[in-house]
User: Which sequence fits this backbone?
């Protein structure tokens, strides 16, 4: 990904599965991180620190936070999101 994926939205596979199950019951909105900053290692590889803005069940937090678990294989790129906060199908 260009720029280490900055600006891209990512979700955990578990969050996405939970959202699909709860959508049958009026789920308030999607949950994902919008990547804002990566601190790469000196050799140019992706570092241990990634920062972003969390949107939790449709509500976006106001501050940039450190994203934990970035090297785990539980992440998935989110499809485009509509203006109302729901994912495009």
Assistant:
């Amino acid at each position: 990904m260009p720029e280490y994926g900055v600006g891209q939205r990512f979700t955990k596979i578990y969050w996405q599965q939970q959202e699909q199950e709860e959508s049958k019951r009026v789920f308030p909105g999607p949950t994902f991180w919008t990547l804002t900053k990566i601190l790469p290692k000196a050799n140019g590889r992706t570092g241990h620190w990634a920062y972003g803005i969390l949107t939790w069940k449709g509500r976006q937090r106001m501050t940039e936070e450190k994203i934990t678990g970035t090297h785990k294989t539980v992440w998935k790129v989110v499809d485009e999101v509509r203006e109302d906060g729901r994912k495009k199908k």
Observations:
- The chain has one helix and six strands.
